[in-house]
Amino acid sequence: MMLCRFLILLLLIVLSNGEVIRVDLNRRILKNSQLQRTEGLTKPKHLQSGTQPYGDFSDMLYIAKIGIGTPAQTFELVMDTGSSNIWVVDKATCQTLDCKGDNRNMFNKTKSSTLKSLNKDLEIDYGTGSVKGHAYSDTVEITGTGISIKNQDLLLAYSVDDTFRHQPIDGIFGLSWPAAAEGLNAPINGLSAVLDQHLFTVYMKRLGSSSYNVIEDGGAITYGAIDTNNCESEISYVNLVEDMNSRYYWQFNLEGLSIGDYSYEKNQQAISDTGTSFLVGPQKQVDNIYQQIGAFYDTDYGLYVLECDKISGLPSLNLKIGGNLFAIPPDQYVLQFNSTDTYCIVAIQTMDAGGPDWILGDTFIRSYCNIYDIGGQRIGFAKPKATAATKPKDNSASLSTLQPFVFVIIFIISIVIKL
């Protein structure tokens, strides 16, 4: 089977000496004609729930710790609601600098007593690079929660392209629908079988740091329960789209948007995606948003910016979902990494390559807790209890006057999955 997708590559440069460091954040938008349902899964006698903290990398990337194997080997993975496979790097067969990355954790097959080969290989082709690996099953643990999935399918990569070389991650943990898993059993199936409730809650913080390190306490993922510690009790739910070709990801109707004097009131499709850093939408609508906030394009760095001292006077971006308005404040859709910065990044980008109209990434999820209701085939939104964004910390890395310390570029390119 060959399946076309789209990839958003997040390139993040964070060195004060001007050296380029690329951090690629993968975004896949998939189409498939079948959806494996989870309602009929056999439940164990002892169901569980638990919360684990998020690590925050410059408000661009959120990761969590996952244990794989027996005994568990710990990895820091992107918990990605836009894909449905788990992959990490195979220590024995992937020895290039691209595989090793910047001190990347790699899986040692000889140390797991529960690892089983599935006798097939998977290649993920990103156009400019790829990840290739062998399929296995093993025990997967959600570190710190007591939740584990036995015999979970995963990919151990034996080849990793240089687009992944400097990512501060060990791999990806897909939390989207089973049809997107491309022949492997999706983690969402295993989780549904062991969770007290068939749902999970994502809460993300805005720490405002540009340090080239993952900072702990960047939020939380709660499995099998609604996060009542970090999220308000009032939840607005919206059903996922009914089209069986689309239900493999967390897609719903976006009924309109407005900001300042601009509004767009036609019905569109949107997805909630923890693996995308920004809001991503159609060119014309995004251009109108830029105009309303006074953003301008910097040709040297390929992104839209505006003066940081204007953030407090900007209007909120309002999204209409399920008849309710969800306001994204300017301190969420404009990123300031240092209190002395002159220019700040606008965390909204364009996408004209097909798929749903809007990707609501971390910019939206920081503004509202997202409750991914697997059993109910719906998604819910609740205000976080800590509504104020953390003020940017003073770091050696800065966006001041657009020097080559920190900048972001998002590319959209087609990719192909081959089985």
TrEMBL record:
The active site is at 80, 273. It comes from the Eukaryota. Gene3D superfamilies: Acid Proteases (2.40.70.10). One of its GO terms (biological process) is proteolysis. Belongs to the peptidase A1 family. PANTHER family: ASPARTIC PROTEASE 1-RELATED, BETA-SITE APP-CLEAVING ENZYME, ISOFORM A-RELATED. This is Peptidase A1 domain-containing protein. It comes from Acrobeloides nanus.
